Amino acid sequence: MYKELILILMGGVLVNNYVLQQFLGICPFLGVSKKFDQASGMGIAVTFVMLFATAATWPIYTYILVPSKLEYLQTIIFILVIATLVQFVEIILKRFIPALFKALGVYLPLITTNCAVLGVTLNNITDGYNFVESMISSLGVGVGFWLAMVLFAGVRSRISETAPTKSFRGLPVTLIAASIVAMSFYGFSGIVENLLA
Q1: Who's near 164: CB < 8 A, 6+ residues apart?
Q2: Where are the alpha helices (DSSP H) in the chain?
Q3: Integer Cα distance of 81 and 34 in angstroms
């Protein structure tokens, strides 16, 4: 049992990284990864929203949509739940932790449209995970999202110190760097399974 949970966790962080392997959440990955603190803040905020969204959507799907034979509404319901959670988190932070709200204020509305959050909630259902496995999966995916954001912020800081040729400046060199970072994560494919064998 514990080996399976560790495999799910490590799979979400390294092997099935949503940003670098499944290309979900690319917009914030490319847009908010210019500075380390911004990338880290976005990664942490997305991780919390993924955990809360999974904690809300899994029971809704299992105990309301399936018994009512309304599974076809899952995408719409999940989007509404995620948007509501992001608004709720924004209100709570603004009321009780204004410093954190000010630091993450710009990033909170972006989380509603982050397809990685919706992707993890839908994939947990598709993969047939129970509640605990879904929460572990969401934690792994969130940590993987944060890791990708932080690593790429480091790469982009190094790129900004160089002077690429005119045709590669801006988005072209960023996309090439992103593809190299993504290729590096393919090396983790067999490692996690072999460590737990």
Answers
A1: 173
A2: 2-10, 26-31, 36-60, 74-96, 98-104, 107-112, 115-126, 131-160, 171-185, 191-195
A3: 30
- The pLDDT of residue 105 is 67
Rounded to whole angstroms, the Cα distance separating 177 from 163 reads 14
| Consecutive 10-residue averages of pLDDT for the chain (197 residues) | 84 87 84 80 87 95 95 93 87 81 73 86 94 96 93 87 80 86 80 62
Give the predicted TM-score (pTM) of the model: 0.87
100 vs 36, 109, 149, 180, CA distance in Å?
16, 14, 19, 33
Nearest to 7 by CA among 129, 165, 110: 129
* Contacts (Cβ under 8 Å, ≥6 apart) of 91: none
Q: How is residue 103 written in tokens?
A: 């630091």
Radius of gyration of the chain (CA): 18
Nearest to 66 by CA among 128, 135, 15: 128
Q: Rounded distance, CA 133 to CA 32, Å? A: 29
